[in-house]
Amino acid sequence: MRSTGPAHGRRSITSRHWMGNPGDRMKTDEFAKAMRRTYDLYFLGGDYGRRYPRPNAATLGFVLANGGRDAQRILDFGCGDGRYCLALLECTRAHVTAYDISASSLIALNARLSGTPFRGRVSLAGTGMSQLLHTYAAPYDVVLMLFGVLSLIGDRAARIDTLSQLRCLIAEDGRLVITVPSIARRRPVELLRHALARRLGRARPPLDEGGNIRFTREVSGKPLTFFYHLYGVRDLTDELSQAGYAVQCCEAESLLPEWCVTQSRVLGWLDRKLSRRLPAVLGYGIRIVAVPV
Ligand SMILES: C[S@@+](CC[C@H](N)C(=O)[O-])C[C@H]1O[C@@H](n2cnc3c(N)ncnc32)[C@H](O)[C@@H]1O
């Protein structure tokens, strides 16, 4: 399903919610190209799918309980190879727009869709944010940014800008469901190294901002460089508020790392029990539902 003109009911982008300027846009584009390269390589050989073979069951349940089950239209922003998209197609009747900057991720998702009865309920969208804003099936009942998509978008201004643009695509009574990596649990060595570089005046944008890190990991024998913004609850809530959202619910996503809970169903089940009472920031990820205000 694909609409051709501006969608009915879409929120207008006001100056209050649009924080970019031409200089920021350029930096954001360069940044997105670097992320696209990294994730293209990550998805290309199937490494991502082997590391995270299925959705985090607790997060899938959270999405379903927060509007997903009855949604008619869902946007999976930063869908990757579609582990959530496929699960949502299976357990809802929704149409899903799956958007990602990585062409390899969409190729992987397309391959996973072939042979399923779901192809007619999916739009694959990857030609850039402006296409997404003007040609797909908005307004959405639920917009997803799962497993750190927001963290990969660049500096604070770029992240707020993206959140603001997505806000314009959410229905009046719709919801945004986000999960992000927690600053209390992830990459302490890199956090320290980048904090030191900032203190010494050696950090270049976007690494001059607290919580931003860059690191290289070997994937199939090739070094891949990743950028993350690691979040605390306060800065996530604050960015959402700047972009025109109110937080409805905030909790820990899991106690164990994502690869553990998605590779082993037993560990996933155990983790679900253990993480129930965990403070949000102590989760491996932080899970939030936000609504447009
Ligand atoms: C860690 S993966 C998560 C994928 C998927 N949501 C999941 O849970 O498996 C992050 C995804 O965000 C995508 N991404 C990175 N920057 C993006 C951007 N600016 N816009 C859209 N997607 C982006 C990457 O290509 C990658 O597929």
Provide structural commentary.
- The chain has 293 residues and is an alpha/beta fold.
- It has a single domain (22-292), classed as 3-Layer(aba) Sandwich (Rossmann fold).
- It contains eleven helices and nine strands.
- The strands form two sheets. Strands 3-2-1-4-5-9-8 form a seven-stranded mixed sheet, sandwiched between helices. It has a two-stranded antiparallel sheet with strand order 6-7.
- β4 (140-145), α7 (156-167) and β5 (170-181) form a beta-alpha-beta unit.
- The structure holds S-adenosylmethionine.
What is the SS-derived class? alpha/beta
Helical content class:
25-40%
Distance between the termini: 28 Å
Mean pLDDT: 90
Bound molecules: S-adenosylmethionine
Number of helices: 11
Give the class-level CATH name.
Alpha Beta
Number of domains: 1
Strand content: 15-25%
CATH fold name: Rossmann fold
Low-confidence stretches: 1-26
Number of strands: 9
Order of helices and strands: HHHEHEHEHEHEHEEHEHHE
The CATH superfamily is: Vaccinia Virus protein VP39
Shape: globular
- The value of Rg in angstroms is 18 Å
| Major sheet: arrangement of strands | 3-2-1-4-5-9-8
